[in-house]
Amino acid sequence: MRHALLLLASLVLAACATPPPAPRPVAAENLLHDAAFEARPVPAQPGVFAVSAPMRRYLETDIAAQLREQGRLRGLVAALENHAQLRLDYESSITRTAAEAFAARAGNCLSLTVMTAALARELGLQVSFRRVFSEPVWSRSNDTLYASGHVNIVLEPSAMGGAQSLHRVTGIVVDFMPGADLRRQRSQEIEAHTVIAMFMNNRAAEALNRGELDEAYWWARGATLQDARFLEAFNTLGVVYTRHGDLAHAERVFGHVLKLETENVSALANLAGTLEQLGRQGEARALRQRLQQIEAQPPFHFFDLGMAALKRKEFAAARDHFARELQRNAFYHEAHFGLAVAYLALGETGSAHKHLATALETSTSRREHDLYAAKLAWLRARAAQ
């Protein structure tokens, strides 16, 4: 059973953490505990948007003709969309800087967004970042839950005359999240320093997932100092304290979040777990009751029921549970895969094929992509017999 103590807000190995509506800024320094952690070489300014020499060569040589013919905005967007040019892959396992994402030709949506911003700025285009309002997408690793928000980027022409004026276009939204529906999105503009805080928060999550608590602390610390309104970083910091055994500090951090957002489900769950460890069971129960009123079912509740039904070979029940999970988390690839397994066992090959294809499309790492591709190929071969 997953322990709510390890519920992390926006710790996104798929990386796309998003900030909450802006509360009042606070002094993050009052919640830090540097003396408890060994120093790590985490930069205060991690060079998220720095442009590398290969990036400049790409703009000045590889797509120079395209930029002249189509205009800088349309030319860059066309290069991003054309797999034959940049060959970008969506990869959720690591958060990269702009230069790192360009070199790897892969990244999560945050990495690819900052890479796009760096290229666009180098061309003199106007760049704005957007927080997308949507339900968080949950994932998990071992006993830790990760809530993924989402950001995208809007590119606009610079105020230039001459040939550029021949290609007048309004702003273009660039979104790297698989399955994103731009027509139905509601979003809010965020500042570049918030994006840097998100980057550092993701790096903290990745270090935490590796068990490297000292490194996780310094990344989370940096995120809180970048943007005191980005409360996900404080949740991350609190979880680092909890893992480190600094329960009093963890309680202070989660309490700070709840003063600003009284219904922050991650902070409520994390604080409840911390209070349980401190032996304050009554306070913890009250928080969990409050949490249940806010969120009737915990993340992955129906997915877990579906997996249990599969083990019992109750395939109709598994189908229904996975379908219910997808109503809350429409792009969760493992639920699509579980639903495909259930449909296959029920003899509904067409539906199995559909959900397996969706699992392949929405997978967020190469390993998962290869697994689903192999399963889909097997299913197609079986259907051809």
Alpha-carbon distance between the termini?
42 Å
What is the gyration radius calculated from CA atoms?
22 Å
Total tally of structural domains: 2
User: What is the tally of beta strands?
Assistant: 9
Q: What's the quaternary structure here?
A: single chain
Given helix and strand content, the structural type is alpha/beta
CATH superfamily of the largest domain: Tetratricopeptide repeat domain
Question: Helical proportion?
Answer: 40-55%
How many helical stretches?
16
Mean pLDDT: 84
CATH class of the largest domain: Mainly Alpha
Poorly predicted runs: 1-15, 17-23, 161-168
Sketch the major β-sheet.
Answer: 4 strands, antiparallel
Main sheet: which strands, in order across? 8-7-4-9
State which percent range the strand residues make up. 5-15%
Run of helices and strands:
EHHHEHEHEEEEEEHHHHHHHHHHH
Q: What is the fold named in CATH at topology level of the largest domain?
A: Serine Threonine Protein Phosphatase 5, Tetratricopeptide repeat
